[in-house]
Amino acid sequence: MATSTSMGMSSMTGMSMPSATSSTSSSMSGMMGMDSMMMVFFSATNTPLYSTAWMPNGTGQYAGACIFLIVLSLLFRGLMAVRCNFTLLWTRWTRHNETPMLHREEDEIYLKHGGRRPWRINEAATRAILDTTLAAVSYLLMLAVMTMNVGYFLSILGGTFLGSFTVGGWTGATAH
């Protein structure tokens, strides 16, 4: 705008001032703007998944991406089942790996009566890793849905159905 400062105000009335969006969009020419994003479901076999490097080039690669999303959804439901039963699974695993002299029945008594067990670093670290993995998988599924591709969306729904069908009984009443 160096040229406009030397002109008088009367000569600027006929000029259109650049808006913030036009300067922003010109500086981010490589990025996709809001005006080019599809806000409706569409069906295309060349929709990138997670990055432009993962863009199917045909129906076979698109089917592979859909199968990947089905498996990722199955993994998500499996992780949910493990997370819902984590304390019980951890107690059984530690009992199996301990020597009989070190085994204590206190953990199972705490679980049966709804009490809390003492905090242990190995158990807390494993639970934190499980929760972080669960969050990462769920965010990847969310990003796939946000592409608004019908095939990706239906693949995730299909994988969720299969996961709930196979391991849904293990998630208990806390996660539906």
From TrEMBL:
List UniProt keywords, sorted A-Z.
Answer: Copper, Copper transport, Ion transport, Membrane, Transmembrane, Transmembrane helix, Transport
* Annotated InterPro entries: Cop_transporter
Location(s) in or outside the cell: Membrane
Molecular function as annotated in GO: copper ion transmembrane transporter activity
Report membrane topology.
Answer: Multi-pass membrane protein
Q: Where is this region: Disordered?
A: 1-28
Q: Which residues cross the membrane?
A: 61-82, 124-146
What is one cellular component GO term in this UniProt entry?
plasma membrane
What is the superkingdom listed in this entry's lineage? Answer: Eukaryota
Q: Where is it chiefly localized?
A: membrane
Q: What family does this chain come from, according to its entry?
A: Belongs to the copper transporter (Ctr) (TC 1.A.56) family. SLC31A subfamily.
Q: What is this protein called?
A: Copper transport protein
Gene source species: Recurvomyces mirabilis
